[in-house]
Amino acid sequence: MAALQLLLQLDAAVWQIIITSVAISVVASLIAAIFAVPAGVLMAVSSFLGKNGLQHLLNTLMAMPTVVIGLLLYGLLSRMGPLGSWGLLYTPTAIILAQAILIFPIMMNLSITAVKSADPRLLPTLKSLGADRRQQTFQIIRTVRLAIVIAIITGFGRAIGEVGAAMMLGGNIEGYTRTMTTAIALETSKGEFELALALGVVLLVIAFVLNFTLSALDKRIR
């Protein structure tokens, strides 16, 4: 009950964490989608040397632990790192960067799958009509847009549940870089189970909404 009261009473600290977490994950998902979706479509419709190797690399990156991404970025963004002068460590930008990198291969792989599941006559038709590569990519994305939306939503769901890199790169600073997952880890270690449970409920609600949306979109595609 105490956890629900924190939410229903619009506790400022709780909602600050929720808003920060959602905002970071939304921005990271948009950034990843801008690059991952076109890259996935281009890879799906192209034939080039090393394509199979690139596909295996994407599959490997999908399984990469988040703490590894956090470690690599920490080395780049720390004061002694090559990008240390940018001052990004322990900022929301660092978390956004980590989440975008984390979900990029997920979105790209799902985009590739979406294109492969489209009508096989689509690409030859576009080529016969004289469409260039950019026009082909745009029309394919338009045709499989629901599957692309599924890829983006899936990436968002992965991003908002990330904890390792967010803890390493954001520093869990209250009111600035504290996300729901890092707050849950911190509050549980402090014995503040009410706040941790409240945030856990929010994550469960978000997961339910995302799964419901994905299911509805999948039915529309079929």
Structure notes:
With 222 residues, this protein is mainly alpha-helical. 77% of the residues lie in helices and 0% in strands. Helix 5 packs antiparallel against helix 8 (145-160).
Low-confidence stretches: none
Mean pLDDT: 88
Q: List how many beta strands DSSP finds.
A: 0
**SSE order in H/E notation?**
HHHHHHHHHHH
Strand count, sense and barrel status of the largest sheet are: none
Gyration radius, in Å: 20 Å
Question: Terminal Cα separation, in Å?
Answer: 41 Å
User: How many helices in DSSP terms?
Assistant: 11
What is the helix content?
over 70%
Portion in strands? under 5%
Q: How would you summarize what this structure contains?
A:
By secondary structure, the chain is mainly alpha-helical.
